[in-house]
Amino acid sequence: MIKVLIVDDQSLIREGLTMMLSLYSHIAIVGEAINGREAIEALKEKEVDLILMDIRMPIMDGVEATKVIKESYPQIKVLILTTFDEDEYIIQGLKNGADGYLLKDISSEELVKAIQTVYEGSMLLQPDVARKMLRSMEENTPRKGVELDDFKGLTRREREIALLVGEGKSNKEISEILYITEGTVKNHISKILDKLELRDRTQLALIINNK
Known about the structure:
- This protein is of the alpha/beta class.
- Helices cover 51% and strands 14% of the residues.
- The protein is built from 10 helices and 6 strands, in the order βαβαβαβαβαβααααα.
């Protein structure tokens, strides 16, 4: 059972999501919140596996809330709901540890699949959102983008793992595919990020998917 908290300042959105997701037996809606601050308070009382987080909300927006939540509850997955005019929010949410981004016009089937994917430990970025994020990162970062030749500095195993990260695989999934421990996968990813001067695995995945 995936325990979901819905965070959105629009009651119609909250009600619609609750009604839709309640149709699926493996998903339980454990609560709703109208802003990030309420979401944080709810976590003190409720057991939550995943948060569906709106970006623009009064008092505390989804970006700031994601940062606070990830610092205190790193095990909780945060799936951000976004629209195409929120590039700055998307990038900051990425920096704050969001596990995935979805457009608000997503279908119910796609939403349920996304929840399952993120819950199982994989990162989720819709292609259109990923492209916008990558363009924004390229426009606003002073360092050069990682080039294909840069990957020659990785070992064969590191390149294998980098490509699997690009496919959105979790550490557990990578360990099962390559028959190595999750700890080994984590160590390899740390080395990859250091060698390529990247901030996190999400940035790595975005760059790989742009090649």
